[in-house]
TrEMBL record:
Lineage summary: Eukaryota, Metazoa, Chordata, Craniata, Vertebrata
Gene Ontology CC, one term: cytoplasm
A biological process from GO: glutathione metabolic process
Domain GST C-terminal residues, every copy: 51-192
Reaction(s) catalysed by this chain's protein: RX + glutathione = an S-substituted glutathione + a halide anion + H(+)
Domain GST N-terminal, residue spans: 1-45
Subcellular localization: Cytoplasm
Any one GO MF annotation of this record: glutathione transferase activity
The family this protein is said to belong to: Belongs to the GST superfamily. Theta family.
EC code(s) of this entry: 2.5.1.18
Pfam families referenced in this protein's UniProt entry, alphabetically: GST_C
Protein name, per record: glutathione transferase
Subunit structure: Homodimer.
Length: 205
């Protein structure tokens, strides 16, 4: 998301995080960063396969993801925690219901189009597509919207991702998301509230 810090502006012209600084090279956008790191460090082939068709399947999911899963899942966190924290007022329940309906449609497409009867998005091995998907889908869980509970296929996919990554690392990576409700107890600087509240509200439009 957007960042008003001076450091973020030096790394990303868009002043958004995540951003990467590798020596004199800088890069913004999470997908671009993941692909760059996978190529630079010669990661195991299953993350971003050398097979042109499997790689295209990863690219296809990443392209679809932003306008679907990413467009809905993080909003649950903004509605239930972040916007009330910055504005001091809860949002109407109808707003969460609207987002959950959009997310439900995206999850149905995710299961039927991408997951199908496979272990992972592109087949029998985990890839960057699975990592990008799970990070977004853990955000509703962190605010009490367990999207896996009534979706056995999705629940089993999550379990396989946990196993492939390693449970300890998986929960370490998602620790902040799963404890996001604790933010409701912190005090926000008034100036920061004034700066970020319009940005957060704009994200929900």
């Amino acid at each position: 998301g957007p960042s008003n810090s001076e450091g973020a502006g030096k790394v990303s012209l868009l002043k958004k995080v995540p951003a990467l600084k590798d020596g004199d090279f800088t890069l913004a956008e999470c997908t671009a960063i993941l692909l760059y790191l996978s190529r630079k460090y010669n990661t195991p082939d299953h993350w971003y396969p050398s097979d042109i068709q499997k790689r295209a399947q990863v690219d296809e999911y990443l392209s679809w993801h932003h306008a679907n899963i990413r467009a809905n899942a993080p909003k649950t966190m903004w509605i239930k925690v972040l916007i009330p924290l910055f504005t001091g007022q809860p949002l109407p329940s109808e707003k969460l219901q609207e987002v959950m309906e959009g997310l439900s449609t995206s999850l149905k497409q995710f299961e039927e189009r991408f997951l199908q009867d496979k272990a992972f998005i592109i087949g029998s091995e985990i890839s960057l597509a699975d990592l990008v998907a799970i990070v977004e889908l853990m955000q509703p869980v962190g605010v009490g919207c367990d999207i896996f509970e009534d979706r056995p296929r999705l629940r089993e996919w999550r379990r396989r991702v946990e196993d492939a990554v390693g449970k300890e690392l998986f929960f370490q990576a998602h620790e902040m998301i799963l404890n996001i409700k604790e933010l409701s107890n912190i005090q926000i600087d008034p100036q920061l509230k004034e700066q970020l509240t319009p940005v957060l509200m704009k994200m929900l439009k």
